[in-house]
Write a structure and sequence with these properties.
By secondary structure, this protein is α+β, with helices and mostly antiparallel strands. It is built from four helices and eight strands, in the order H-E-E-H-H-E-E-E-E-E-E-H.
Length: 206
């Protein structure tokens, strides 16, 4: 009997430790420092999240703006989080991209998500607007505004997004972390594409 109780106690301890570690990982993802973000604001009003991020990217405006115009290359530059990305429709400055993304902070059953997004580039404004076309969790609209730093050597990205929940499937801390990590994945992929960060390791062939 004592042996059984000891085993049960050990299992409970393992579960508690795992839960604590998961909670800490979620909090770190949702609020922890990230060198890619200069400032941020993430808030929720009703069923809609309002997100604002500002990032400084150490490359000239034209290079950064060009790099962000190719979300279909995300699987090349961020394979750890983007399992697949491809254009399914293109017309002038507008394209529709299918992405299969992975966010490890989300629970089983939610880690891998399919997202179809339409992107429209406004060259004269150095701006990109996007909105989700097919996504089961939320209706998402984003705006990327790029401007050169005073010395012209860097680029400031002002990112704004609204995400309207379709169903309250995840707790707020998880949603907040997912919104933040999705943005960071985009910035990190562009930094790699520009040679500002080490290239990702090649994905092992299955």
């Amino acid at each position: 009997m004592k042996a059984i109780l000891a085993i049960v106690g050990l299992l409970v301890l393992v579960v508690v430790v795992y839960a604590v570690l998961q909670w800490r990982a979620i909090q770190q993802a949702a609020t922890g420092p990230a060198k890619e973000i200069v400032s941020e604001s993430i808030s929720k009003s009703g069923d809609t999240w309002h997100v604002t991020f500002v990032s400084k990217i150490d490359a000239p405006l034209d290079r950064v703006f060009e790099a962000f115009q190719h979300p279909e290359r995300a699987s090349q530059w961020a394979p750890e989080n983007v399992l697949k990305s491809e254009i399914i429709q293109s017309d002038g400055d507008t394209k529709v991209v299918d992405v299969v993304g992975r966010l490890d902070i989300l629970p089983p059953g939610f880690k891998v998500q399919n997202l179809r997004t339409e992107y429209t580039v406004f060259p004269a404004e150095h701006r990109i607007a996007s909105h989700s076309v097919e996504f089961k969790l939320a209706d998402i609209a984003s705006d990327y505004q790029f401007e050169a730093s005073p010395d012209g050597k860097s680029t400031i990205l002002n990112f704004k997004q609204t995400s309207k929940d379709k169903a309250p499937l995840l707790v707020d801390s998880l949603q907040k972390g997912a919104l933040r990590e999705t943005y960071l994945t985009q910035v990190r992929a562009v930094n790699r594409a520009l040679g500002l960060a080490p290239a990702p390791e090649k994905r092992q062939a299955s």
